[in-house]
Write a structure and sequence with these properties.
Blueprint lengths: L3 E7 L5 H9 L7 E8 L3 E2 L2 E2 L2 E6 L3 H16 L2 E9 L1 E3 L4 E9 L2 H17 L3 E7 L2 E4 L4 H8 L11
Parallel strand pairs: 1-6
Antiparallel strand pairs: 2-8, 3-4, 5-7, 5-9, 6-8, 9-10
Length: 161
Amino acid sequence: MTVLSTVRLQREPFDVAAESAKLTRGRSDIGALVTFTGICRGAEGGEPIAALTLEHYPGMAEAEIERHVADAIERWPLLGVTVIHRYGRLTPGGDIVLVITASSHREAAFAAAEFLMDYLKTRAPFWKQVETAGQKAWVDARAQDDAAAGRWASKPGQAAE
């Protein structure tokens, strides 16, 4: 059966239940559905956050995410993938990103969801600005996120390079 995949970048909120239902509707071959929702925190390191602003290159960002979705589909026996990433100004409590992976079994669905989130955190063409009390600052890459993404350097069954 064909793998259903969706990649969308949007300003407006998404509905996790509706997106999950779209991916599984009429499918009896799906035995595992993993959903991850990234949410805007209200504080970082004890300092209150007023908002996050996410920017991207339209067209390029979607193409890059689609490329990594295709990589996940090649790595694991997936039956469906949805990636929705919001952009614009987001306030604490607002959803930022949704990753849904579907497979016959949980191991592939969990691994693919982690792989996609590690990619989105480290290499997706987004820029994040944090707004605190009267101050705005662009967020730099974090070594711990790069280390997490490094575990995917090789495909399952291959030695790391």
